[in-house]
Each structure stands twice: as structure tokens, then as C-alpha cells.
Design brief:
The protein has about 450 residues and is mainly alpha-helical. About 60% of the residues lie in helices and about 5% in strands. It contains 14 helices and 8 strands. It has helices spanning about 1-5, 10-35, 90-110, 115-135, 160-175, 185-205, 210-225, 230-250, 250-260, 265-270, 285-295, 320-355, 360-380, 400-420, and strands at about 45, 50, 60, 65-70, 75, 140, 150, 155. A hairpin with an 8-residue loop joins strand 6 (about 140) and strand 7. Helix 5 (about 160-175) runs parallel beside helix 7 (about 210-225).
């Protein structure tokens, strides 16, 4: 036990715990309003007397409780002490999901990382079947993407989250076995593109472009480190960009969202609906996120004092938890979260540099790409640098599948760090576009 504790990478562990704790605190703050189902009449009451702020906006009722507009009338959020609702339903659920995720983390941390070599092909097939099953059994869970599977008595799972782990392990063994073929077109690029496409195309059809983007970044990162030709990567990226552009232009919803992102005018954001369709607002989420981030300023409104989470900012506990947190905590404190992901990236690359073998190095790179690129995409969406993608902030957002997948990946990375070779720096990295695997004696400990 003492040896096990001595080998743990406490820097990574503290960064992970800090992000988990931050997410729990923010969901405890944000989740009060999200735990209230406004479709249930007993959860709220109509407001007759109300107060306004300096700009004339209605913000409080006669008893200084927050109010919002619903179906043309102003309603008061219930007091959590009234007993009509469980205001902490969301945070209780999140705590259970953290505990389940931590079980997965400790299992991955304890087992030798090389066990994933044997499990990778099986995991790849199982996750692929789950992704394909969403076409028949999937539900949109209130979003545009049909990427959830409901399990009675358990809840819902999102197979695309497990796809990120499966593709990391499978590509790691596939690339490890082909060190001299990776840079070729027929034996390297074509098989790589086919394997990646097996996962990416079904998820793109859901459509879940956020997961597609993260999966592509994971795959390309590992492919590059394995010694791929930069020319092949560039050509492949252009082909993917072309296919994505064609798909976006053919799907009305995606086309509308993309035009609103490029040119957020009133006409593009809220176009006239077709006969029989509801009015769409492609800019609402981004606009409310910008208001949340901007109104937080340097120091924020204060914990639990955010306004945008009160039904203005959709998915405030999920995809837009960064914006909701920025409103309450401000720029300085929320920037610490960015630094935590930056530390994970730097530490993960160091672990990959000192990896004991080729498989471990590629898995480490895949995990770093998964956690950090997903965090980058999520934060970029929250500050309107990217269009809305619908992916979570690792370790922070509410979501059981995402938490479990990211915690397992962190457990694997920390397990690899226990086997790191201090003098193996740069042994397996790209060299003149080629890679090689040292003899086994290089890894033996004295």
C-alpha cells in the first residue's frame, strides 16, 4: 500500500479533485433552479406584485423572491423551505455520479495499463454497437442530437462519451503494431481514416458535431505522434472539412445555426418560421452565455447570486456551466479552472515523454487530447469563439457518462505515470517523420 501511494502522481490527482470539487460547488449553486420542474403547477405561484431594477426590468416579487416570465405571466420561484420541491435534487444526483465515476477511476488507477491492450478490440466493438443502437433506441433528451440511450431503472447513457475511450485504446494498439507503416498512404493513412470513420460517421448522423470534433482531434493527435505524414493529415483535414460543409448546408437546423454564428444578425438568429414550424432562435444560448460571462466581470456577482441560471441560460449546469460559473465567480477565479486544464495537459505530455512503451505513450497522448481539447471546445463555445456544440466540461459539468469516461481516462493516465521511465525522455517521439521502438532491455528496471 505504501509503495502504491508513493507512486501516485499527486499533481494530477489534485488537479482532478480541484475540478471535481469546483463542479460540485457550482452545481450546488446552479442546480437549485434546475431542480425545479416548471411544468408542474405546484412548484410555483403567479406573481401579482413585483419590483423592478434600475433598468425597469422585473426581477423580484413583493417578498423579494426572484421571478421569471413563463407563458406570458410572471411567476415566483418557490422557497426551498416550502417543501413543494427538492431544490437539491440535481446536486444529489451529481454526487452519486461522482461516486460512480470515482469507482471507475480507482479501478483504472489500480489495474496495469497493459490490460487495455487485451480489452481494446472488445471495447471498440461494444461501443460501436451502442452507437449504432442509438439510431433505433436513441432519444434526443431535449436536444437536437439523438445520442442518448435510456436504460429503465438506471437512467440514460451517451455512447459517444465511451467512444472517446474506445478509440484511444484501439488506435494505440493499432499504431504500436505499425511503426514503419504509419507514414505511408495505403498501409497508414487509409486504414486510419477508415477506423476513425467507423465511429465518426454514425455520430455525425445523430448529429453530434461536438463529439465528432473531439474524436477527430483525439485521433489526429495520436496519428501525428505516431509518425504520420503531415501531408496526409492536411489532405485528410481538408476532405473532412468539405464533407462537413456539405452536410451543414443540407441540414436546415445546422445551416441556420452556422449562419447565425458567422453573422449573428436578427434575420439569421431568429428567421421567419416556415408554415407550421415554431419560431427558432439560433443565438439565444450564445447571447445568454455572453451576458453571463460579461455580467460577472472581474470578481463575479457572488456564489449563488447568478441571474442567468434562472431559466435564461439553457443547460447552465451542463454545457454552459463555465458561463454560469463566470457570472458568479468572475474572471479571476474562473481563470484558475483554465490553469487546471493547462496543468493536466503539461503533466500528461511529460508522462508521455517518459512512457515505458509505445502503447503507453499513445494512450497518454490520447487522454490528454480528450480532456484538454474537450475543455477547450466547451470553453470556446461558452465565450462564443465556437458555435454551440453540446459537449460537457470534463470533471465539472453535470452528466454521468461524461464523468465516468473522463475519470476512467484520468485513472489510466495516472497508472501510466507510475511506470514512467525517468531516462526514457523522447524515446518514442517522432524523429524525421519516423518512429521506432527501443529494445525491451531499455525498459527493464535495475
Amino acid at each position: 500500500m505504501q509503495k502504491f501511494l508513493h507512486q501516485i502522481d499527486y499533481g494530477l490527482l489534485l488537479a482532478m479533485i480541484a475540478l471535481l470539487a469546483f463542479g460540485f460547488i457550482m452545481i450546488a449553486s446552479i442546480g437549485v433552479t434546475k431542480s425545479i420542474d416548471l411544468s408542474i403547477k405546484s412548484h410555483y405561484q403567479q406573481t401579482i406584485v413585483y419590483k423592478t431594477d434600475a433598468a425597469g426590468n422585473k426581477v423580484l416579487d413583493g417578498n423579494n423572491k426572484p421571478i421569471i416570465e413563463k407563458d406570458g405571466e410572471w411567476i415566483t420561484y418557490p422557497n426551498c423551505k416550502d417543501g413543494n420541491v427538492d431544490c437539491y435534487k440535481l446536486v444529489k444526483s451529481h454526487l452519486v455520479k461522482i461516486l460512480i465515476g470515482l469507482i471507475g477511476f480507482f479501478i483504472a488507477l489500480t489495474f496495469d495499463y497493459r490490460v487495455w491492450k487485451k480489452l481494446a478490440p472488445i471495447l471498440f466493438v461494444i461501443v460501436l454497437l451502442m452507437i449504432l443502437a442509438t439510431a433505433i433506441l436513441g432519444t434526443d433528451n431535449g436536444t437536437i442530437a439523438r445520442n442518448w440511450i435510456i436504460i429503465p431503472g438506471f437512467g440514460s447513457i451517451q455512447p459517444a462519451e465511451f467512444a472517446k475511450l474506445a478509440i484511444i485504446f484501439y488506435f494505440a494498439i493499432w499504431m504500436e503494431r505499425r511503426p514503419q507503416e504509419i507514414a505511408t498512404f495505403h498501409s497508414g493513412f487509409l486504414p486510419f481514416a477508415i477506423i476513425a470513420g467507423i465511429y465518426i460517421l454514425p455520430i455525425m448522423m445523430q448529429p453530434d458535431f461536438g463529439s465528432v470534433l473531439v474524436l477527430a482531434l483525439i485521433a489526429v493527435s495520436m496519428y501525428f505522434v505516431a509518425g504520420a505524414s503531415l501531408k496526409h493529415i492536411l489532405v485528410g483535414s481538408l476532405v473532412v472539412l468539405l464533407i462537413t460543409t456539405i452536410l451543414v448546408t443540407q441540414v436546415d437546423y445546422l445551416n441556420g445555426r452556422f449562419k447565425a454564428y458567422i453573422n449573428p444578425t436578427e434575420e439569421n438568429c431568429r428567421p421567419d418560421p416556415k408554415p407550421g414550424d415554431k419560431q427558432k432562435d439560433y443565438c439565444w444560448q450564445s447571447e445568454q452565455a455572453n451576458i453571463a460571462v460579461g455580467s460577472g466581470g472581474i470578481l463575479g456577482r457572488g456564489l449563488a447570486q447568478g441571474i442567468q441560471k434562472n431559466e435564461y441560460l439553457p443547460q447552465a449546469s451542463d454545457d454552459f456551466i463555465f458561463a454560469a460559473s463566470a457570472e458568479e465567480l468572475g474572471f479571476i477565479r474562473i481563470f484558475l479552472i483554465v490553469l487546471a486544464y493547462f496543468y493536466i495537459a503539461c503533466r500528461g505530455i511529460i508522462i508521455a515523454n517518459h512512457a515505458p512503451d509505445r502503447f503507453a505513450q499513445l494512450v497518454a497522448i490520447g487522454v490528454v487530447a480528450y480532456i484538454c481539447f474537450q475543455a477547450f471546445v466547451n470553453i470556446s463555445v461558452n465565450v462564443s469563439l465556437l458555435p454551440v456544440t453540446g459537449i460537457t466540461l470534463p470533471f465539472v459539468s453535470f452528466g454521468g457518462t461524461s464523468l465516468l469516461s473522463s475519470l476512467i481516462s484520468m485513472g489510466v493516465l495516472m497508472n501510466i505515470s507510475k511506470f514512467a521511465m525517468p531516462y526514457a525522455y523522447n524515446t518514442h517521439w517522432r524523429g524525421n517523420g519516423r518512429t521506432y521502438i527501443p529494445k525491451y532491455s531499455h525498459y527493464r528496471r535495475s
